[in-house]
Amino acid sequence: MPDASEADRIVRAFADFTDGAAMKSRDLVLLLLQHSPTPFARSHFTPGHITCTGLVLSPDTERILLVHHRRLDRWLLPGGHVESSDPSLADTARREVVEETYASLGPDAPLALAGIDVHGIPPKRHEPFHLHHDLVFLFRAESDRCGVSNESRAVAWCAPDEFDRYDVPENVRRSWRRVKTDAALRLR
Predict the structure, then answer these.
(1) How do residues 169-179 score in pLDDT, each as one tens digit?
(2) What pTM, to 2 d.p., does this model score?
């Protein structure tokens, strides 16, 4: 199980002062880590919990992998909740990407976060409205092959000129730009 010190180290290393929204999310994640004894617990609703997402680049690095989320009815990056069996937070993101898309990911290890985004999750059944403190890790797919899991309606490779058509959220667009311009985030 990942621990709070790992999250703290990863989040503190993220610094993009041109992206005020991501930096505000960074501060919120650090506050969660400082004040919550269970920041990864899916049942921790006030104010929420840490989740991990994958920004998956296509093999040519010119497109990103999106899932059309069944419950939220919108195109998003694949990702989800931390499990006790996950060795690290990057492994959480990798597991979630593979579970949701069946994509084959390259062995490249994320060198740094591609983004941080704290966002609201609407209530459902026994879960109240809460926040996902989302850490976005970078991966590259080994091929374009992928599939649809029961959590999604569809998966798609999306190029930047299609971002409007897929209504790609602004935090994902900023992460894409960061990946394309920050040499520290380039995968080998």
Answers:
(1) 999 999 999 99
(2) 0.94
